[in-house]
TrEMBL record:
This is DAGKc domain-containing protein. Residues 193-217 have a biased composition (Basic and acidic residues). It comes from Vanilla planifolia. The keyword Nucleotide-binding applies. It holds the Pfam family DAGK_cat.
């Protein structure tokens, strides 16, 4: 049999196999020109584009929020979304590659999109005042939020800006007074104090009201699930705190794993809380967060929750 005939036969067989994997035939590309060092366009053209003619790279959370605001959200949200890490944190990409046993790199993320590997991901509904939005990575309050927001002026430093500003914030460490309430996941009800029966804490999270039930939220697209916590056992914790994070996946950055037991679609958020602690302990926690062992610190509370309320203090 001629060599070219054999080659064509192998090519046809390979195409049939690849097509059987239900991988995406066409993908829509979204570049975030302002993420990280603003190098998304350069990375796409120099690293990603050589692998394929079209690719998805996006600020995933914004895209998900946009899809869920559509009238056809229930159809739109089923569209697979691929992500190529070109920003500062890249937690979703890192988590996806890690669970697949792949090293974190732009090339491996690109190949994952090409292969069409898919994984369902929980979406958390967040209500703040009369605003509703959706979270897929992390919600944070305290030290981590301050570092993220206040270090924006050093964005030219890239990922280094986070470490740099962490040092500044530790030198002038703030303590955050507040009160939090949560519905623990099964087996996680050993933290905090039980809340007594109270109308302010026994509300139903429905599609037309806030958690505390005293304000209307405009209904557009997807509304939060009509989950009732009327019969749930709420528990509470009092500050001061250093940082509070609600995390949906294990990694929030390529070298930061605040929620080592987080799963993509278990229906829970992982609550990682750093209590008031000495600066030396905080530095130790920040070093151990790289491999998730920080959760063993006596200054860290780590559990899974179904619902969560935060009441900042003065």
């Amino acid at each position: 049999m001629p060599t070219e005939v054999i080659a064509e036969s192998w090519s046809d067989s390979l195409k049939c196999y690849i097509n059987s994997l239900s991988r995406p035939k066409r993908v829509f590309i979204i570049l975030n020109p302002f993420g990280g060092k603003r190098s998304a366009r350069r990375i796409f053209h120099s690293v990603v584009r050589p692998f394929l003619s079209q690719l998805t790279s996006c600020t995933l959370c914004k895209v998900v929020n946009g899809l869920l605001q559509r009238d056809d959200w229930d159809t739109a949200i089923k569209m697979p979304l691929g992500i190529i890490p070109a920003g500062t944190g890249n937690g979703i990409a890192k988590s996806l590659l890690d669970v697949a046993g792949e090293m974190y790199s732009i090339q491996n993320a690109t190949f994952a999109v090409i292969r069409g590997h898919k994984r369902p991901l929980d979406v958390a509904t967040v209500l703040q005042g009369e605003t509703r939005f959706f979270s897929i990575l992390m919600l944070t309050w305290g030290l981590v939020a301050d570092i993220d927001i206040e270090s924006e002026k050093y964005r030219w430093m890239g990922r280094t800006r986070i470490d740099f500003y962490f040092i500044l914030r530790v030198m002038k460490l703030r303590k955050y007074n507040g009160h939090l309430e949560f519905v623990p996941a099964p087996g996680h009800d050993f933290y905090g104090e039980p809340k007594k029966e109270s109308t302010s804490h026994r509300r139903t999270i429905d599609t037309s009201s806030r958690v505390d039930g005293d304000s209307k939220v405009k209904q557009t697209g997807y509304q939060c699930p009509s989950t009732s916590f009327k019969d749930s056992e709420w528990r509470s914790l009092e500050g001061p705190f250093i940082a509070i994070s609600l995390v949906n996946v294990p990694w929030v950055g390529e070298d930061s794993m605040p929620a080592p037991k987080a799963e993509f679609s278990d229906g829970f958020l992982d609550l990682a809380l750093i209590k008031d602690c000495p600066k030396s302990a905080l530095v130790s926690i920040s070093m151990k967060i790289r491999d998730g062992t920080h959760v063993n610190s006596p200054y860290v509370i780590y559990l899974k929750v179904k619902a969560f309320k935060l009441f900042p203090g003065n």
